[in-house]
Design brief:
The structure holds two protein chains of two kinds. Chain A has helices at 6-10, 30-34, 88-94, 125-131, 146-156, 163-173, 177-180, 193-206, 223-236, 249-255, 282-287, 292-298; strands at residues 48-59, 62-73, 77-81, 105-113, 116-117, 132-135, 211-215, 241-245, 258-266, 272-281. By secondary structure, chain A is α/β, with parallel strands linked by helices. Helix content of chain A is 32%, strand content 24%. In chain A, the strands form two sheets. Chain A has a six-stranded mixed β-sheet with strand order 6-7-8-3-9-10, sandwiched between helices. A four-stranded antiparallel β-sheet of chain A has the order 2-1-4-5, with helices on one face. Chain A is globular. Chain B is built from twelve helices and no strands. The longest helix of chain B is centred in the first third of the chain and has 36 residues, at 13-48. The chains are: A alpha/beta, B mainly alpha.
Chain lengths: 303, 293
């Protein structure tokens, strides 16, 4: 993408960047806002990749998120932020039907991917996950070689083509090739945490998805690894749509185009249900939010 | 500071003494068991080593102690092991996969199966012998007093152990691996076959080896399913009559001549070496291939 900030964002991470751990309560640094590219204002002309319509997701009958409705746009990075337990991850996992793996989970409402209702009975969740990849909070490489980690997806999907070049291309897209090209046959468990997470991203890219869902991909990583993954996300935005759950508000401000702010509503029976308070261009969320709850959260006064 | 350390110091003398006393009791326990075990081993080795000759392995049982050997028993045991492995690996692993990956615990029949397997692991081996006699040797299967019937009976006996260790090995594979695989568009079957099973093979193999080592040491069920104690030929197939090492040892011990006692002790040594070897392989497998997550 025509990102005027690429030069800034690919520069080596410096000490200027505050460590991840401090993020929850720190105000957004001016630098983080400077590197933001203004999001296009004309929402109607942008291509939607997801349309979330009145979605309520419950576990064993208890709603984890309620009445979620917003679109997610193609070739953009959409951040889901909010306090713990507000259902960001639950919603994210509804986008590629990973919630199906939890027997008690139930999704009501409609999630459209392009114009396909993902929860239509004719839709095979396995086919959904081929198009919509996912990167998890904790790096979860398979206990296999680096090569086999990447090749697993293409192999089970029966992808045609030279496996060596598929692996190389995925590792290049994951900004990992130069570091690992000489040890492709070594076990992925020998890599650093940041490398493992980039391996997981590369693994997701190897099956050529449309969308990549990231569930707090940097929460287990140090600032340098985090910076690398954020740079990578900027590069990937040209070809993929990315939805990222993050607790790190600077990260949301740095990388995303659109931001959804979630909050927790306490029910009478002490139930906790997530709601979306505000969904808007990231710049607006972080500079002039329309809801006072958003403002309190992003400025670090609560949360 | 000083007051703090005084507070910590006072009142702990009694409990420290109790701690020391407990440690001594534990030491006595372990010493007693180790000493007993060593005595048994030394006694057996002293009795049996003179009997460990070429004749022992080359010859079949005989009424003449000088000519008696345990080749048919050793071969019988090896045949039984083969039958047990072929039976318990697919059935045990399959059951473990079903219970861990597919079974819905909210269904009563799945819970019933689980409870049953736990209980079966504690059933005395003689009961399996009766089962083998009634259903495999005679009754529906009518296999006769054959290697197949004996091996299947021993297999049933150790199957619960294989299932339980198999389930533990599968459970040790973290859910994040399954999620990672499913998120790449793999089906549940591909996930199990290509991720979960390979990662749990060391644990399962350990369980299978320990189960086999238990199976070949069993005597009672084999007596019931009619393994002969005097077999002067090696098994020629699954439908062949057979004997096994523990039975041969039992047979020799019940002979009046002292020379047979030496043979029995030598037989015990052979059996012990086999068991120790298999347990050693199990330990090695676990240490060498165990996955640290």
């Amino acid at each position: 993408m025509q990102d005027p900030t690429t030069a800034t964002s690919t520069a080596p991470m410096t000490d200027l960047d505050p460590p991840d751990t401090s993020t929850g309560h720190a105000a957004i640094t001016p630098r983080a806002l400077q590197v933001r590219e203004p999001a296009p204002t004309d929402l109607a002309t942008r291509d939607r990749i997801f349309s979330i319509e009145d979605v309520t997701i419950s576990y064993s009958g208890k709603a984890a998120v309620r009445d979620i409705a917003f679109p997610i746009y193609k070739n953009e990075i959409t951040a889901l932020i909010g306090p713990s337990g507000c259902g960001k991850t639950t919603l994210l996992r509804a986008l590629n039907r990973m919630n199906d793996l939890i027997p008690t989970a139930k999704v009501e409402g409609k999630v459209f991917y392009h114009d396909i209702d993902l929860y239509d009975s004719a839709v095979d969740p396995v086919q959904v996950r081929k198009r919509i990849g996912m990167v998890f909070q904790k790096p979860n490489p398979f206990p296999k070689s680096i090569y086999d980690n990447i090749a697993f997806g293409p192999r089970v999907l029966g992808m045609k083509g030279d496996m060596d070049s598929i692996v190389e291309s995925a590792l290049r897209k994951g900004a990992l090739w130069d570091e690992v090209k000489d040890r492709l046959k070594t076990n992925a468990f020998g890599m650093s945490g940041g490398q493992q997470q980039r391996l997981c991203i590369a693994r997701a890219l190897a099956i050529e998805p449309d969308v990549i869902l990231m569930d707090e991909p940097c929460s287990a990583l140090d600032p340098i690894s985090t910076g690398r993954i954020e740079d990578l996300m900027h590069e990937l935005r040209a070809d993929y749509s990315i939805v990222i759950v993050t607790h790190n508000m600077q990260q949301a401000a740095r990388v995303s185009d659109m931001t959804a702010f979630f909050t927790v509503e306490l029910g009478q029976d002490e139930s906790r249900t997530g709601r979306v308070v505000e969904y808007d261009a990231t710049e607006k969320i972080f500079t002039s939010p329309s809801d006072p709850r958003t403002e309190a959260y992003v400025t670090g006064r609560v949360g | 500071m000083a007051t703090n350390s005084q507070q910590i110091g006072s009142g702990s003398t009694g409990s420290r003494l109790r701690g020391q006393a407990f440690k001594i009791v534990l030491w006595l326990c372990i010493t007693a068991s180790v000493v007993l075990l060593c005595l048994l081993l030394v006694e057996t080795l002293r009795d049996g080593i003179p009997g460990l000759t070429g004749t022992l392995f080359a010859n079949f049982p005989s009424f003449n102690p000088a000519k008696a050997g345990l080749q048919s028993a050793l071969m019988g045991t090896l045949w039984l092991m083969a039958v047990v492995i072929v039976f318990i690996v697919p059935v045990g692993v399959g059951t473990a996969i079903y219970l861990e990956e597919y079974a819905d615990r909210n269904r009563w029949w799945n819970r019933l199966i689980e409870v049953n397997i736990q209980n079966l692991a504690a059933v005395p081996s003689i009961v399996y012998g009766i089962l083998g006699l009634a259903f495999l040797v005679r009754g529906p299967a009518s296999l006769g007093r054959t290697v197949l019937a004996g091996g299947l009976t021993l297999g049933l006996l150790v199957l619960p152990v294989v299932i339980i260790t198999g389930r533990e090995a599968i459970r040790a594979v973290p859910p994040s691996i399954r999620e990672g695989s499913m998120a790449l568009g793999a089906t549940q079957w591909q996930t199990i076959w290509k991720q979960v099973l390979p990662a749990s093979i060391p644990g399962m193999a350990t369980g299978v080896i320990l189960a086999i080592s238990r199976a070949i040491g069993e005597t009672a069920p084999l007596i019931l399913v009619g393994a002969a104690t005097f077999v002067a030929f090696n098994p020629s197939g699954l439908d062949s009559a057979f004997t096994a090492l523990p039975l041969q040892i039992f047979n020799w011990l019940s002979q009046p001549q002292d020379e047979f006692k030496t043979l029995a002790a030598a037989g015990i040594i052979v059996l012990l070496v086999m068991l120790a070897g298999m347990n050693g392989i199990a330990v090695w497998l676990r240490n060498r291939y165990e996955q640290k997550w």
